[in-house]
Fold this protein.
Amino acid sequence: MDTELLTLPELPFPLRPYGPDGQWAYEDGVLTGRAGPRQDRFVPPAGTALDPASDAPRLLGAAPEGDFQLIARVTVGFTADFDAGVLYLHVGEHEWAKLCLERSPAEPTVCTVVTRGRSDDANAFVVGGDTVWLRISRTGTAFAFHASPDGEKWTFVRVFSLGDEASTAAALVGFMAQAPVGDGCVVTYDRIAFRPEGPRGQRDGS
């Protein structure tokens, strides 16, 4: 797939590739993407702007208006430190966020990055294996990140705002693969789901 839209039956909006070629493919409920060598999307906190060469394969679409949840079970073929499978949120060229299953650096870990010109970087908790469920949600003008070992009970990771009201409403959401220091990695996403509502509670496991 090059620049053509990809339609997943689980999602009410089409997806378009951005950045380097991710060799995105979908079959039997499984989405696969590949990061190439040293591909990442991160602005060092001491930096001043996004380096145009700092990019990674993304597959994104415009979420419908209103509250939502985007959910996927993410499996990463780890080969090097900081390889990651990502649920990605984009509201502007210098305003975007990542919810990652990342080798960070010694163990698979749920990590987050929120970029407002420069990126922050925070580890949430270690995952016992190469698979975890991730969820991005929007409630009003706020976004939230959650993770789960089973897709049933969700652990709160963070809640934040990003962009102004107009850009929040027009957010792009989807998937990303990264391999910042390695030679590349393969990421698969299955059990993909979209819900046109926010979580019942941010911190109660729902």
In short: Helices lie at 165-169. The domain at 16-121+134-190 is CATH 2.60.120.200 (Jelly Rolls). The radius of gyration is 15 Å. Residues 165-169 form the longest helix (5 residues).
